[in-house]
Specification:
Number of domains of chain A: 3
Strand order of the largest sheet of chain A: 5-4-18-17-16-6-7
Strand content of chain A: 15-25%
Strand content of chain B: 15-25%
CATH superfamily of the largest domain in chain B: FAD/NAD(P)-binding domain
Largest sheet of chain B: 5 strands, parallel
CATH architecture of the largest domain in chain A: 3-Layer(aba) Sandwich
Radius of gyration of chain A: 25 Å
Helix content of chain B: 25-40%
Oligomer: heterodimer
CATH topology of the largest domain in chain B: FAD/NAD(P)-binding domain
CATH architecture of the largest domain in chain B: 3-Layer(bba) Sandwich
Structural class of chain A: alpha/beta
Largest interface: A-B, 64 and 54 residues
CATH topology of the largest domain in chain A: Rossmann fold
CATH class of the largest domain in chain B: Alpha Beta
Largest sheet of chain A: 7 strands, mixed
Shape of chain B: globular
CATH class of the largest domain in chain A: Alpha Beta
């Protein structure tokens, strides 16, 4: 019996793995407070990849003669990788090697990967797929609060608030056990508000549902702040005592009156007013409220400003730091939080330190035992690095860990071209993902039940993933792979492959940084059901309790106040036009996870394949029928998939899930200027039944007349 | 960016501020804004919401004084402009100051027209004390002060008001007074309400709704004379209509009509029809250094002799002009207007010009529900619409209108129909009940207890959202074996 956590989303549900004979069973772990024994079908079937025939168990090397991947030994594969990396570095400089990490890696692996890049390879070119996930909220959180921790309170606090506003989150499908907290809130008499272009299963649980045009959540927030101020519901005392810059923000929303907001967002003024009244309270009683954003609001070219606008609203209402109230981001990936804290992000060092901060460089370099001057500066963000692959000055080799770029990157056809232009592509994965299939060298690595390490869930709770079974023969833990590779490329310092050792080193490297892990160890995590950072090292022999709730007295900004930022609605980078008249948005379904590399291979999870969701009115217009093939076209690509005619989506919008190859051939690579987040959540598209795809007729939506 | 030189904006309304903002963000450095009111520029269109009490007056201010200072905008308030001297390229102020310009922008807005009512204006040229205009923040404050005084005395509900004018502003003011508790009557000279926007049928529905909310409506009637009556509680105004009615009232609010403020332009010798005539770059047709935007301007693309009177076109013109002044390429092609009535319990939206737009009309009138909705469709696109009493789907209809989306032939009709309920009454066996574990209704019906459901199917063990449905399904499970003791 091993108590560990689900391999998938940021909830990191506790689960018990029990061996019976050769099989490994998932059983509840009722004491773990985040999910209290509940799991969704992804969790219950998580052992489905154990002993799977598609599991990789030997390194693969692309044969020059045949062009096919063939089995190779670890020494051969790693020598080959090391030799070619060294050669490229000598020929083109250290930035000729890029490293691409993932939000599914443990903290220890993410940390080692960052160290591999900065110390062993000396490259600035490292980033990870979390850039496409939480980066807008991260950027906004840092600017407003001086820290980026997804939730500043435990998830269960939701049950004790009065109003929770979910902006662009479908948690009932993406992290189902979290929805239990919503239900308990409602049983207590609390109110749930959902903002989403689709009436999702989460919206079905809402007391108030707002259905904006994709890409207009920012304008909605501006309009809400306008109304909150108009009716005198701003918490003036809080704003004066705990924030800076609010007066400019207040003026900036004077021009966002409800009817203007209605026209931009497609949300009727009555609904907007209803939400403003809910947040303002009545009879002089100020409700506790939580504003929670997720990818729906964040994956936009104005995503970080969108989050800032919702934070402004939360600050105006005096929420952050109050008990059972505040702003939070619902992180997506399993270790999306920890993965962005320990140095696999282009601009960061461990402990959420910034790489261009001289003090941070000195501290981390001292822990690593290298001169601070030897550390590279900030590199390219995830998409910008991919965009530069194989170009002059761009990386010529790419090491990919825990990411399936070929499926998950925006404008995926272009990204596939860039990957093809590389001199060397190395992919570490457990199965032959779409990206691994393009690689020159594939390295088989462990999955969750076969390894030990920490993850940091959406609450900032550091939890322990514990090894329950030995990996199949031939498979190695990424920590070993990274340490071995570091040695082979001539790292000036040795790398440990022992997770507890690496975690202790990570703690020292993070000490004094915003995400301080120095006081956390595996035993404490086991004993306390996780420890919330910041948790500095013991002082005078007394251990720090960890920090479940942030901001009660102060914000970690230089003057202790939260900062309000004036933001303006710019709109999506791509607007509908006669040729591409509808909005395309993308997202997830319950039974699949991320690029689907794992979940699509789990037999007990339904793999229905990609589909196109559209409203009956739009279906009638274009002549689409439920289940019949429908072609979606954008300026970047085309996808044909069965239509799903549903009434829960806006009639001017179509939805495609992104777990399969195809959705991201359509999506736009326009980036947020602050977070470098691509605009996954909205672009302009046309839809037509397959038969009519090439014919321009009045029935074709895309027909310009 | 090309520097536009010294830009002087005459007027400090919403168009003027928008222009200043756009010029600042484009990098222009010398901007002077001349406003005749004493207040910092404010959001004029929310004045009726302030009167109604749904908006605090302080929140109308668009920018703080510090903003103008910080961005190099010389904002001069309470100044009266006498003339534009085009030869000298100077703006002449009443205090004798002369402001030189490279470009001058007329953003003077519109001025209310006084209806021909005898007794409206006193001998000294000022309005009768019972009579209020409703155009500026000062007007609004004066009217609010009257209501506040009445509230303090506890007499508001005994007081009466007459609103002259049944346009958007008149309806908003009438509704605001009604919400505040004043017994309100509304007089409109035309045959129906909102006649510059909608047809008689929609106007009739609005009148009925307004009456239902307690406001008496007189259409086809003009106020001709304001006198005084004597009463037990003191004097009241007596507003005589041309149909013979005399309305006792404590208050008369004038909302009827405004016209573009063009006196400066006329004196400067510029071509003026209804507004200042400008080309598609918002330049006066007579002088390339003179521009006009907003309510005082008459750009091409507007119907002959009409100016728009709404904020979105004024803003769009401001944006276009800013681009043009800073060296960009832009041409004003006209804006789609959406007029939204801003008043509690009175739902009206007018898209474009439904009375004059060319196209086919799809309409649904439901007198039982007090709604009238009409879409004007041309080549598949919604080119105009009237929505009264039912604004469901307004967020979609305005999107289609603004974006010029081409709809299918059945779609405009479908847009006006109610949503159908989509959930079947009884779940078929193959309907998924628990999405988390992927369990269908049949599998749950096959279980006998909640515990069995949990153990066998794992339904309810994820998000827990299906618990209620599961309990319901277990309760409705057909029993194959009759319970003992029950009659067979």
């Amino acid at each position: 019996m091993t108590q560990t956590h689900c391999p998938y989303c940021s909830l990191q549900c506790g689960m018990t793995l029990a061996r019976s004979g050769r099989t490994l069973q998932v059983q509840p772990w009722p004491e773990f407070p985040v999910n209290e024994g509940a799991l969704c079908r992804k969790g219950w079937t998580a052992t489905g990849l154990r002993g799977h025939r598609e599991r990789l168990t030997t390194p693969l090397v692309r044969d020059r003669a045949t062009g096919e991947l063939r089995a190779a030994g670890w020494d051969e594969a790693l020598d080959l990788v090391a030799q070619r990396l060294i050669a490229l570095r000598e020929q083109h400089g250290p930035d000729a090697v890029g490293v691409f990490g993932g939000g599914g890696l443990t903290n220890e692996k993410a940390y080692s990967l960052g160290k591999l890049a900065r110390v062993a390879l000396g490259t600035s070119q490292i980033d990870y797929n979390g850039r496409w996930c939480m980066s807008s909220a991260a950027s906004a959180g840092n600017r407003a609060f001086g820290v980026d921790r997804g939730l500043p309170f435990p998830l269960a606090d939701i049950e004790q608030t009065d109003v929770v506003v979910l902006v662009g989150s479908n948690l009932a499908e993406t992290m189902p056990p979290a929805a239990r907290h919503l239900d308990r809130l409602r049983e207590r008499g609390g109110t749930v508000v959902v903002v989403d272009p689709r009436r999702t299963p989460t919206a079905e649980r809402a007391d108030l549902f707002l259905q904006p045009v994709p890409g207009t959540d920012l304008a909605l927030a501006l309009g809400l702040l306008h109304l909150v101020d108009a009716i005198g519901a701003v918490d003036e005392e809080y704003v004066a005592a705990r924030t800076n810059g609010f007066e400019q923000v207040r003026r900036s929303v004077a021009a966002w009156w409800p009817e203007r907001v209605e026209r931009v967002t497609g949300v009727a003024t009555d609904e907007l007013r209803a939400l403003a009244r809910l947040l303002a309270g009545s009879d002089g009683r100020r409700p506790r409220a939580m504003v929670l954003t997720a990818r729906g609001a964040e994956q936009h070219s104005q995503g970080s400003d969108t989050v800032l606008a919702w934070i402004n609203l939360a600050l105006a209402l005096g929420l952050p730091g109050r008990p059972f109230a505040g702003y939070g981001c619902l992180t997506g990936q399993g270790n999306g939080q920890g993965g962005r804290e320990h140095g696999q992000k282009a601009d960061q060092l461990p402990g959420y330190r910034m790489i261009d901060d001289p003090a941070a460089r000195d501290h981390v370099a001292a822990v690593w035992g290298v001169p601070a001057a030897s550390l590279p500066g900030p590199g390219r963000s995830a998409y910008e690095m991919l965009d530069a692959l194989g170009t002059d000055g761009g990386p010529r080799a790419l090491l990919v860990f825990a990411s399936n770029i070929a499926v998950s990157a925006p404008n995926a056809t272009h990204v596939a071209d860039r990957l093809a232009a590389l001199d060397l592509l190395v992919v570490a994965d457990l199965v032959m993902s779409e990206t691994a299939a393009l690689a020159d060298v594939v390295l088989p690595v462990t999955q969750w039940a076969e390894e030990t390490g920490t993850m940091t869930n959406l609450e900032g709770r550091v939890i322990l993933r514990e090894r329950a079974v030995a990996p199949p023969e031939g498979v190695r833990d990424e920590l070993e792979v990274i340490a071995d590779l570091a040695a082979r490329v001539g790292s000036p310092v040795p790398f440990s492959a022992d997770p507890a050792e690496v975690f202790a080193e990570l703690g020292r490297a993070s000490a004094g940084g915003p995400a301080d892990y120095a006081g956390i160890d595996y035993e404490r995590i086991r004993a306390e059901h996780g420890v919330f950072w910041p948790c500095p090292a013991p002082l005078d022999g007394r251990s720090h309790p960890g920090t479940p709730r942030l901001f009660a007295d102060t914000f970690p900004t230089p003057d202790g106040r939260a900062r309000c930022h004036v933001v303006e609605h710019r709109g999506a980078a791509e607007q509908p036009c006669p040729e591409f008249p509808v909005h395309l948005t993308t997202g997830r379904v319950l039974a699949q996870y991320q690029s689907g590399a794992q979940t699509r291979r789990v037999r007990d999870l339904p793999d229905e394949g990609v589909f196109v969701e559209l409203h009956p009115m739009l279906a009638t217009r274009v002549g689409a029928y439920d289940g019949e093939p429908l072609t979606v076209t954008t300026r970047r690509g085309t996808l044909t998939a069965p239509a799903r005619v549903v009434d829960w989506i806006r009639p001017d919008t179509v939805f495609v899930p992104f777990h399969w190859v195809g959705a991201n051939r359509l999506t736009n690579d326009a980036l947020d200027p602050a977070s470098r987040m691509p605009e996954f959540k909205v672009c302009a598209a046309s839809v037509a039944p397959l038969a009519a795809g090439r014919r321009r007729s009045p029935e074709t939506v895309g027909a310009a007349r | 960016m090309r520097s536009p030189g010294r830009v002087v904006v005459i007027g400090a309304g919403m168009a003027a501020v928008r222009l200043a903002e756009q010029l600042v963000s484009a990098g222009a450095r010398s901007i002077t804004v001349l406003g005749d009111e004493d207040h910092l520029p404010y959001n004029r269109i929310l004045l009726s919401a302030v009167l109604e009490g749904t908006h605090r007056a302080e929140t109308l201010t668009l920018r703080d004084a510090e903003w103008y200072a910080a961005h190099g905008v010389d904002l001069r308030l309470g100044v009266r402009v006498l003339d534009v001297d085009r030869a000298a390229r100077e703006v002449l102020l009443a205090d004798g100051d002369r402001v030189p310009y490279d470009r001058v922008v007329l953003a003077t807005g519109s001025i209310p027209t006084l209806p021909p009512i005898r007794g409206l204006v006193r001998m000294d040229g000022r309005l009768h004390e019972r009579v209020h205009a409703f155009r500026s923040l000062d007007d609004c404050r004066r009217l609010c002060a009257v209501l506040d005084r009445w509230d303090a005395l506890g007499v508001t509900t005994e007081r009466r008001a007459v609103v002259v004018g049944g346009g958007l502003l008149g309806l908003q003011v009438a509704r605001a007074l009604g919400v505040r508790g004043v017994r309100t009557e509304l007089v409109e000279g035309g045959e129906h309400l909102l006649r510059s926007q909608v047809g008689p049928q929609a106007g009739g529905v609005i009148a009925r709704e307004l009456r239902r909310l307690g406001t008496t409506v007189y259409t086809g009637a003009r106020a001709v004379r304001l006198g005084e009556t004597d009463g037990p509680e003191g004097g009241r105004g007596a507003l005589r209509l041309d149909n013979g009615y005399v309305l006792d009232t404590d208050l008369v609010v004038l909302t009827a009509g405004g016209r573009p403020s063009t006196a400066l332009a006329r004196r400067a010798g510029l071509t003026v029809r209804r507004g200042v005539v400008v080309d598609d770059r918002l330049r006066s047709v007579d002088d390339e250094r003179v521009h006009a935007i907003g309510d005082c301007a008459e750009p091409p693309g507007l119907a002959q002799g009409r100016t728009s009177g709404f904020v979105p076109p004024a803003w769009e013109q401001a944006g276009e002009l800013a681009v043009h002044l800073t060296g960009g390429e832009a041409g004003y092609t006209g804006t789609r207007s959406v007029a939204r009535l801003r008043a509690s319990d009175l739902d009206v939206a007018v898209l474009g010009d439904p009375e004059h737009a060319e196209g086919q009309v799809v309409e649904v009138t439901n007198p039982l529900a007090g709604s009238h909705r009409q879409l004007v469709v041309h080549e598949g696109r919604i080119v105009a619409a009237t929505l009264v009493g039912d604004l469901s789907r307004i967020g979609l209809i305005t999107q289609y209108y603004d974006r010029g989306s081409v709809l299918g032939p059945g779609e405009p009709g479908a847009l006006l129909m109610a949503d159908r309920p989509t959930r079947p009454a009884a779940l078929p066996d193959d309907a998924e009940v628990c999405a988390c574990a992927g369990v269908a209704a049949g599998a749950i019906r096959a279980c006998s207890s909640l515990e069995e459901v949990r153990d066998r199917t794992r339904a309810t063990t994820g998000c827990g959202g299906c618990a209620a449905s599961v309990r319901q399904l277990l309760a409705t499970r057909p029993s194959l074996v009759p319970a003992k003791g029950s009659p067979s």
